């Protein structure tokens, strides 16, 4: 019997992220507590730029955006936000969405699989994803449970289950 396998990836649905940003933008424009504060949220190239006239307002806009991401099924582990920075009369927060598994995180995941996973399971780093193979599908499911329980700072999805 052939080996079974799946890939561990960290991807974001760009359309859902864009929808979350548009919803946050609408809410910021319409909410009473943001009236007259010049608060805004928008794409700036690949980054998300949040502007407001005070540090607390900028953090509140970020909070609105985070709640919209959660409602759209995007993990906050994939959002990388900086601290509010004063820029003239306004405060700015620059955020980005992380995709792909870094080499150090891939090595951590591989180590978890080797140390705590079933012995028949093999993992292999392929660019920004990991391929996990085994003869037993039950062992692969055990690895998925193990990684879901592990406290990693990256949002993982399991795809190409064969």
TrEMBL record:
One GO MF term: nucleotide binding
One Gene Ontology cellular component: cytosol
InterPro entries tied to this protein: UPF0234-like_C, UPF0234_N, YajQ-like_sf, YajQ/Smlt4090-like
Q: Does the keyword Isomerase apply?
A: no
Q: Which intervals of the chain form a coiled coil? A: none
A Pfam family that the UniProt record links to this protein:
YajQ
Instruction: Please provide the record's keywords in A-Z order.
Output: Nucleotide-binding
Q: What does this protein do?
A: Nucleotide-binding protein.
Family per similarity comment: Belongs to the YajQ family.
NCBIfam families linked: PRK05412.1
Q: What's the name of the protein?
A: Nucleotide-binding protein DCP95_06935
Higher taxonomy: Bacteria, Bacillati, Actinomycetota, Actinomycetes, Micrococcales
